[in-house]
Amino acid sequence: MATANERIPVLVTPQEKETIAKMARDAHMSMGEFLRRAASSFRPSEDEQVLERMIDQMLKTTARASTAVDEALSFVDASNRRIATMESRQAH
Question: What's the domain count of the chain?
Fold first, then answer.
């Protein structure tokens, strides 16, 4: 097994620290070992994975919709300019 020599600073509240310390003591482990094992065994639930994919899809769809709206507004602006030009020619 490789020697653990890298640090990952994690900020927690005093209450969270006490909870983690108690859980580690109850498991007869150091807090470092307890947190390493907890991190290694963590697997996001299927619901979390589905939610992440939905968020990714929403962001992509929102970007496409925003681009489409910008293009439509540009088209309307150009159309309004053409109409204004035609109307000004008829007024003369």
Answer: 2
| Phi, psi of 24, rounded to the nearest 5 degrees | -65, -45
Task: Give pLDDT tens digits for 50-59.
Answer: 999 999 999 9
- The ranges of the chain with pLDDT < 50 are none
Residue 20 in tokens: 């983690």
- Two structure tokens written together for 89: 């020619």
Query: Are residues 56 and 28 part of one domain?
Result: no
**In-domain check, residue 83:** yes
Residue that has been written with the tokens 């003591």 in this structure: 25
pTM of the model: 0.48
Q: 18 and 50: one domain?
A: no
DSSP tag of 9:
-
